[in-house]
Input
Amino acid sequence: MDEKNHEADKETIKWKDIEKILKEPSYKIAWKFNEAKKKGARADCKQFCIRHWAMERKIDLSSYKDSEITNNDLLKIGRKAVDDNKLQNDKDESEVDNIQRRIENRLNIIIYGCTRPQNNRRISVGKNTELNVKSMVFFDELLKIDARTLERLIRLSEIGLKRVAWDPNDRHLELDEEGFWGTVGEPNPKADYYETLIVQGLRALEDVKRIKLDKKKIEERIALLYPWADERIYKSSEGIWRLDNMEQTLAKFEEEYPRDDLQNKEVYKCIDKSILKCEKEIMRCIERLYHVREKKVKL
Output
């Protein structure tokens, strides 16, 4: 009974309103998520992919209004787009499937650091997966990001680097009249964009069934990438978190790049030397804490 009431209460999707949100520039990401949160509508992943495909190629779907676009409709749309010189051919079904694969690749990069994780853990998004509007915002933005750039960003975040420098592959972020970029090679608001996108985007998926990501897994990943995103997660000092994170990162890299391999030995010598030096510095600081407590020195 409750399920029937839920279906009855579900907001009818209005693609015009959703597309208006999606078309806003990327630097308005926080606003986009806030607006999406107000929408209770849902649509299956295939319909989202079709709409995204059409928006990318400036194909007008206004005649379909909010109705579901069938495979036959898609064929007609593709043929007309070829006639209008908006497509080179009408292989529209494979184009839409490719959008779905691109979403999956980027999700796996965020969760596992690569597109093809081991042990059959790869996340998939089925065509019939019902998306909320926040997850549509998330996927729409992910599709603008170069996969290699995203993979590099996640790697840096995994080792505790909060800010990221300018990257020429991030073309979708450069049209900001408010100086979004900052100085090339220096920290800039782009890092805040990625943090908002990934934290809010992953949390939007908690409400999406058929994607094998539960709340615990999502929050654990956020805690690793952006521990300061939630005070409940970030209880310990930043220094303690960095040490813990460094230990996990080194363990992961030692699996991927074994110490026994000849080409890796020199690098590991440098790492070990740096850790020992860091340890000595920390112990000196701890020694000072003892003196401070005994009031032998003043801060």
Residues 262-293 form the longest helix (32 residues). Residues 1-9, 163-168, 171-187, 231-236 have pLDDT under 50 and may be disordered. DSSP finds twelve helices and two strands in the chain. The longest strand covers residues 42-44.
